[in-house]
Amino acid sequence: MKMLFPSQLMTMVLIQVDVMKLAKKAKVDSSPPPASINRYIPDEVWIEILSHVDNRTLPRCRFVCKDWNSMIRGSVWRKKAERAIGKELPAAEWTTYYLICDGLPMYKNLLKNHSGESGLRERGNWTILKNGGNGWDVESINRANKPKDSSWSGEKHCFVTSFNECVMEQTVNLRDAGLSDYVLDVLRPTIKACITFDSQFFFPREIESLNSKLYFYCSRKVTEWFRSGADRPAEYELRIKLYGQKLTDIMETIDYAKVIEYEQINQWFKFTHEINDYGKGLRNIKFWHRGYDRSQTPGNYGTKMAGACISLEMRDDVK
Q1: Which domains does the chain have, with CATH numbers?
Q2: What is the superkingdom listed in this entry's lineage (predicted)?
Q3: Sheet holding 269-274: strands in order across?
Q4: Do the Cβ atoms of 237 and 291 come closer than 8 Å?
């Protein structure tokens, strides 16, 4: 969109007020917009104006005329969604953007205190199950020992383990996170399997319809970075469990384990896994990880973990 002069911006504000008035009394109309409304105003300006209309009023604006209906379904909801999450989005059905604007937690990490930035005592996130050796600790990540991978998201802290088993877990209630039963059971986001470790490796992606009338393309992704302590071998283990309404209703379990030794010591590794075919009824996800220093050295020289993540994401290959 071209830069607008102050007078043009003021005009946009005044027009938006008129838009709100039109929406309140709008009925289905197949005629073009009134000349007094659309005269000399390019589509990109209308899209910008309409993108600032509140979520409840905007659906009614579709009935003002065909042009507005086309712009709202084609560009306006996408623009509002991109503004809401602060990043560009791939092409998708307008209903996907609407759900994002309506509070669907897309592109957000559903795990709290993912790298220990809030310490170990903050309530409402991690539950420590085993605190062996000197126990869990949190340390800073400096420039010298951060991952060199471009996908590193800049965490400044990491959890660190000790010379005996250290285990912690966190459970995400998907309803509490803002996902409705309709999204979980009817739309059921597509989840694809993918593992990234040392080098990039991708499984073929497929496009499939979740509903004969509605397409909703996204994936639930689990991610964490980990490494050994300074010059010492270590062990890392991750377990993801999908549950129904109760934490006794186990739907699926994903296990991953890695012994870090020899030339792999002091290197960061990234684990990523995308889940699909989990069926109806998913309500909770448990993230469980474990680590320790295999050299049994007193102190906190065991496995380090950072960037633990459970997220809901749209696929970037949907057109």
Answers
A1: 6-101 (no CATH), 127-313 (2.60.120.260)
A2: Eukaryota
A3: 137-140, 157-160, 304-313, 219-227, 269-274
A4: yes
3-state secondary structure of 151: coil
Per-residue pLDDT of the chain (319 residues; tens, 9 = 90+): 445 444 444 445 445 555 555 555 555 455 555 555 555 678 888 899 899 988 888 888 888 888 889 999 989 999 998 888 777 877 877 877 887 787 777 667 888 998 899 999 888 899 999 999 999 999 998 775 777 766 677 788 889 999 999 999 999 998 998 887 877 787 666 443 222 222 222 222 222 222 222 223 334 557 777 777 777 898 999 899 999 999 999 999 989 998 988 888 888 888 888 777 788 899 999 999 999 999 889 999 999 988 888 887 654 443 3
CA distance 28 to 42: 23
- Residues 6 or more apart in contact with residue 294 via CB below 8 angstroms: 232, 233, 234, 235, 259, 261
Assigned token pair, 90: 């791939």
The first and second tokens of residue 253, run together, are 């379990």
Alpha carbon 151 to chain centroid, angstroms:
15
- Detail the DSSP E strand segments found in the chain: 127-131, 137-140, 157-160, 166-173, 219-227, 234-243, 250-260, 269-274, 284-293, 304-313
Q: C-alpha 79: how far from its chain's center?
A: 18
- Amino acid code (one letter) for 174: L
